[in-house]
Amino acid sequence: MTPSRVERLHELAGHLIVAQDAERERLARELHDHVGQGLAGVSLVLSGLRRRIASRDPALLEASLTELQHQTMGLADTVGQLAHRLQPGGLQQVGIVEALSFHSAEFQHQYGVEVTFESTGDLAPIADETARCLFRGAQEALSNIARHAGARGAQVTLSRANGEWSLTVADDGRGFDVAGADRDGDGLGLLIIEERARLLHGRLHIESNSGSGTTVRLTIPDTTALTAREM
Predict the structure, then answer these.
(1) In what order do the strands lie in the sheet with 164-171?
(2) 118 and 33 together in one domain
(3) pLDDT tens digit string along 58-68?
(4) Which entry of 49, 126, 151, 220 is 20 to 30 Å from 95 by CA?
C-alpha cells in the first residue's frame, strides 16, 4: 500500500468520524425539536383531557380527543420520516424506481420545491448495493437542495445504458463554486456518497456555478450486466 493510499484512508476515516458526529447532532436536534415538542404537546392535551373528563362535557371531550389524534398522527409521521432517512426499508420491496419516485414526491411535499422524476432504459435487475448507493445519492443531493440551494425546482433522472447506471439530480438554485468549496461540514454527505460510489468502481461529478444551479451526477458500473457476461 503506497503512502498516498494510507494518507487517503486516514483522511477518510477522519471525515467519517466528523460526519457521524454531525449526523448524530442533526438527529438529536430533530428528535428534540419535533418528537420532543410533539410529546410535550400530547402531554398538555392529556392534562386538559383529564380536567374535561371531570367536567363531563361531551363536546369538550370530543375536541380534546380530536386534538390528541392529530398530535399522535403528526408524531407518527415525524418518526416515519426519521426512520426512512436512516434506513430506506422499502427499497428492496418496491425497487429503485418506485423508491426514488416516492422520495421525490415526499421531498416536494415537505419542502415546496417542485421535483420531477424521470427514469429511462431497462431498469431491472439491479444489485442491492448499487440501488442503495443511488438512493443515498439522491437523498443527499435533495437534502443539500433543501438546505442550501434556494431552488424552485429540481429534476431527478435515473437511467441505465452502456453498462452503467446513472443518477442525475439538477436544480435551478443559486449554485456555488465547486473548485473553491470547502468540503467539510455539510459537504461531508457528498464525500461519503463519493466514497460509496468509489467502492463500487463508480464516480461522482458535480457541476455548479454561482447563480446557475447545480447538477450532481452519480455513475456506477452495472454489476448485473458484468455478472451476466462472465457466466
Answers:
(1) 114-120, 153-161, 164-171, 214-221, 203-208
(2) no
(3) 777 777 777 77
(4) 151
